[in-house]
Write a structure and sequence with these properties.
With 72 residues, the chain is mostly helical. It is built from three helices and two strands; from the N terminus they run E-H-H-E-H. The chain has a two-stranded parallel ribbon with strand order 1-2. The radius of gyration is 11 Å and the shape is globular.
């Protein structure tokens, strides 16, 4: 799965234990209710701009950020 950077705003949920082993095609814990309930968070998640982490970024999250920074 290839992620594309569409903007310069990211939301990062920290210390989410369920985020320590997300599937490779997932940037955040889809059980986070606020992402589904808040329209702006829902929009950002569809644009690959919502992350959730436990203690560190996962490879797919780090790769997306690296790709975005290269475009700056």
């Amino acid at each position: 799965h290839t992620f594309v950077c569409l903007g310069d705003v990211f939301v990062v949920y920290c210390k989410d234990r369920d985020s320590q082993s997300l599937p490779p095609n997932q940037l955040y814990n889809t059980k986070l209710h606020s992402v589904k309930q808040q329209p702006i968070l829902s929009k950002l998640s569809k644009e690959n701009r919502v992350f959730s982490v436990n203690k560190a970024l996962l490879p797919q999250q780090a790769q997306l950020l690296e790709n975005c920074f290269k475009l700056l």
